[in-house]
């Protein structure tokens, strides 16, 4: 038997086992007594969460002819990432503000930008599902959106509770957890203090600030904190960034040369940075509030504090242990990275995708929309191998490195290995790198209304060896205008193990 024949036979056996398992769960489900407060009904697929990753799962499964129910607290699907707020505010600053804060923008314009962006995102989501129905043709079942939060009550059962009226009891063959994440809140900050209302914000609530602050302290050194430091500066606020780390966006697999360039740009436009100073010894909320840095005792006066110190998954609320899955860690579900199945007992039919996973995914880096979408396709391929193969013609091959974009000013994009990673893996003589500034390329010769900055550059990291991998492109890093547009070409080169030759 050839390898291809063996693979085909294996897939067929897998599909037959899944068919038996699906019928088995239906027999078990029929024997389960329905909830006393709600009529129970069966679906092929239950999706927990109607954000961009959950919407992708719902579309894919519906196009395969599956009956899909989506439990979503908002009661509607929104195929826009959590970061749509920051992207809208960033565009506002580009359109009406100034990078150095010399122009103060009226917050009423921010409300308008946010409202219009949300409406467009909802329309885009509706159009995607309409297009899916047309492409799928006969057998397509529009996903049913159930308003409420779902929680598992068994291996194939769940309740969806909106807090209004009777909960919905569901029996399902497969479940996909895509509940997303929320801003992590440090316990030492006065989140419940009435005096902090309108003064203390996190990455989810900053959209409700209602004004451009005069003086803003941003706590955190990750991508969200860095993005908002640039955004609020462009809208006219005085911004001070305080962080525990030495450099911004440490732990994000970003090349050190890019981190240095970002911090240099921040200082040049007037953003003050306090590295290794992310903890406060005293917090004084209010219109004339302030924070005291624990490391130096410095008092930073501010009429607003944005604490953006990371995000945590929302899996705790759905009670995955009740379905046989391992208990979540830091709000995330552990998964088998090759399939995105949840780790546990008899959980081959339960998947977790997006930024609500804790460990196991093989798609890097974690926590991004592009990563979550790749994981959703991996999961649906594993759940329905024959249907997916029939629709796309072959089982897909998935890349291990997803391109990343960070929406600072200008944009940062990267894919693959950093200089630091390459040095650790291959030693000083086992890799090379080249850095070219925009103004040294043909791109920089083209006339434009706003010339490229002298600090904007492209960087290539490659392998040096006596073997066949000599010259292999390990990583590409871009700091400059348009970086997010052409990093995808670089991603193809990295994942195909192309060489510089």
Explain what this protein looks like in three dimensions:
With about 500 residues, this protein is α/β, with parallel strands linked by helices. The protein contains eleven helices and 25 strands. The strands form six sheets. Strands 1, 2, 3, 4, 5, 6 and 19 form a seven-stranded mixed beta sheet that branches. It has a five-stranded parallel beta sheet with strand order 8-15-9-10-11. It has a five-stranded antiparallel beta sheet with strand order 21-22-25-24-23, with helices on both faces. Strand 5 (about 155-160) and strand 6 (about 170-175) form a beta hairpin. The relative contact order is 0.11. Residues about 1-40 have low confidence and may be disordered.
State the gist of this model.
This protein has 501 residues and is α/β, with parallel strands linked by helices. The protein is built from eleven helices and 25 strands.
Tag the structure with descriptive keywords.
five-stranded parallel beta sheet; alpha/beta; 31% helix; 501 residues; globular; single chain
pLDDT averaged over residues: 88
DSSP E strands, number = 25
Percentage beta strand: 15-25%
- Percentage of helical residues? 25-40%
Number of helices: 11
Largest sheet: 7 strands, mixed
Q: Could you say which structural class the secondary elements and strand pairing correspond to?
A: alpha/beta
Q: Span between N and C termini? A: 39 Å
| Structural shape | globular
Q: What radius of gyration results from the CA coordinates?
A: 25 Å
Poorly predicted tracts of residues: 1-38
């Amino acid at each position: 038997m050839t390898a291809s024949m063996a693979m085909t036979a294996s897939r067929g056996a897998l599909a037959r086992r899944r068919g038996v398992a699906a019928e088995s769960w239906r027999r078990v489900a029929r024997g389960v007594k329905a909830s006393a407060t709600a009529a129970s009904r069966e679906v092929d697929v239950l999706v927990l969460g109607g954000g961009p990753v959950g919407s992708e799962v719902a579309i894919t499964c519906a196009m395969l002819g599956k009956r899909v129910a989506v439990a979503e607290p908002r009661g509607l699907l929104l195929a826009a990432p959590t970061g749509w707020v920051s992207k809208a505010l960033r565009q506002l600053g580009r359109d009406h503000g100034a990078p150095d804060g010399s122009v103060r923008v009226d917050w009423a314009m921010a409300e308008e930008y946010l409202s219009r962006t949300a409406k467009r995102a909802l329309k885009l989501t509706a159009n995607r599902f309409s297009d899916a129905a047309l492409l799928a043709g006969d057998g397509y079942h529009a996903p049913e959106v159930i308003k409420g939060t779902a929680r598992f009550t068994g291996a194939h059962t769940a309740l969806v509770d909106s807090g209004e009226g009777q909960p919905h009891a569901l029996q399902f063959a497969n479940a996909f957890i895509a509940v997303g994440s929320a801003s992590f809140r440090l316990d030492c900050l006065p989140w419940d203090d009435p005096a902090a209302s309108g003064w203390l914000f996190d990455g989810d609530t900053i959209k409700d600030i209602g004004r451009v602050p005069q003086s803003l302290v941003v706590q955190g050194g990750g991508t969200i904190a860095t993005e908002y430091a640039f955004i609020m500066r462009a809208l006219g606020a005085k911004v001070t960034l305080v962080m525990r780390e030495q450099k911004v966006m440490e732990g994000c697999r970003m090349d050190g040369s890019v981190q240095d360039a970002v911090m240099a740009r921040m200082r040049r436009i007037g953003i003050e940075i306090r590295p290794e100073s992310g903890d406060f010894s005293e917090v004084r909320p209010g219109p004339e509030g302030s924070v005291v840095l624990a490391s130096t005792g410095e008092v930073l006066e501010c009429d607003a504090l944005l604490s953006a110190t990371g995000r945590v998954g929302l899996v705790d609320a759905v009670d995955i242990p009740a379905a046989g899955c391992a208990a979540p860690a830091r709000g995330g579900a552990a998964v088998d990275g090759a399939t995105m199945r949840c780790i546990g007992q008899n959980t081959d039919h339960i998947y977790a995708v997006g930024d609500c996973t804790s460990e196991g995914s093989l798609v890097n880096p974690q926590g991004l929309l592009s990563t979550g979408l790749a994981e959703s396709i991996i999961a649906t391929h594993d759940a329905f191998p024959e249907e997916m193969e029939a629709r796309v013609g072959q089982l897909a091959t998935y890349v291990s490195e997803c391109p990343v974009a960070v929406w600072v000013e200008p944009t940062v994009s990267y894919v693959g290995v950093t200089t630091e990673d390459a040095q650790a893996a291959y030693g000083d003589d086992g890799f090379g790198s080249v850095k070219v500034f925009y103004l040294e390329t043909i791109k920089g010769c083209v006339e434009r209304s706003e010339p490229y900055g002298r600090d904007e550059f492209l960087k290539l990291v490659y392998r040096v060896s006596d073997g066949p991998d000599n010259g292999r492109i390990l990583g590409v890093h871009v700091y400059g205008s348009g970086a997010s547009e052409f990093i995808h070409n670089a991603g193809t080169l990295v994942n195909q193990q192309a060489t510089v030759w």
